[in-house]
Specification:
single chain; alpha+beta; Outer membrane efflux proteins (OEP)
Amino acid sequence: MKFIGMIILILAFAVSQKSPAVYQDDQLEMLLRLAIKNNPEIKSREESVSAFIHEAKFAGSLPDPQLTAGYFFTPVETKVGPQEWRVGLMQKFPWFDKLSTKRKVSLLKAEVATQQLRASKLKIAREVRTVYQKLRLLAVDDFITRKNLEIFKQVEAVIRAKYTTGTARQAHLIQLQVEILKLEDQLETLDDKKIVYKADLADYLGGLELPALDFGDLDYYEEELIDGQALNFDYNPEMQIANLQVEIARRGLHLAKLASIPDFSLGVDYVSLGGTAGDNPLMAKAGISLPLWFGKNSALRGKATAVQQSAEYRLRDTEEKYVARLEELRFKLEDQRRKFHLYVNELIPLAEQSYQTSEAAYLGETLDFASYLDAERTLLNLQLAAARARSDYYIAQAKYLEINGSEF
């Protein structure tokens, strides 16, 4: 009987042993690289950046010249001959600073597209990290559940032996069988969840076949959860985009003000007089636009001013939003770290002692079966709670990495 009790204790989940302090996962890094390389959303953003870069190459160029031609149905007689047809070429020259401002706006838009690409990469990386931690939690949950299922089956064998000798009641055996069925059902649920999470992970990897995942020795916990860098959003893509949008709006207002300044045109006309080529005149010409529609120009300036104010408010709102989100994130990280250390360093060791005492007392027939099961359930729940606290911590850290704009 004592030998069986020792087997039960050995099979119990040994959280008292410690793992290395630093949690490194090359497997996760490999998944991140595959996702960044193959995810279709990221590929789409990359093409968008390429499009804006090409657009910036011709932004700010002179407008296409205008070629004009005319034919005189009734020739105009001149001293050297009748005017039969004419052909002209006209080039428009916008006011100084108009073209350079347009080019700067185009370059800023290309930078916005680049930041949107960064935002997509950070989002996909966060989602991969999150699903990966959920899969690891399922693996730990599965490991702990199977350990406890094995313990319960060992205890079932003990109770069957005691039942045949009349030292255990049938109710104890039935109650334990119910617990075993509940654990077996939980294992099936965990298997179903794994399928869902693996499908999500494969989707983030662009439909690639998911490699086999090995979460290592699940019998161990870290001594310390890895801390992140100082919480900030200086390199957050959304903040970068908000700042760029303000600058684009300022340039747009500058262009709106320049709209009331006239543009110039220069060109030449060649007139055929029906005689020799040497007699055909070549005429230079110049033109100027007349921005007389003051209402239109005023509306353009009003629109550009409103766009700039909107961009400035959006920047302020984005900054305040991230201040609040970082405070919430700081709380989650500190709370889950505290819970993890509480479970691993204090509660689980106490629950293990309680379970060992209850197991010995039950085998010595000085403790009722219900109290023994309660001690086992308490240890199981604390082990799972520790695993969830660890998972929630790293999921919150994945969100922190996204907000912080950390490269991967």
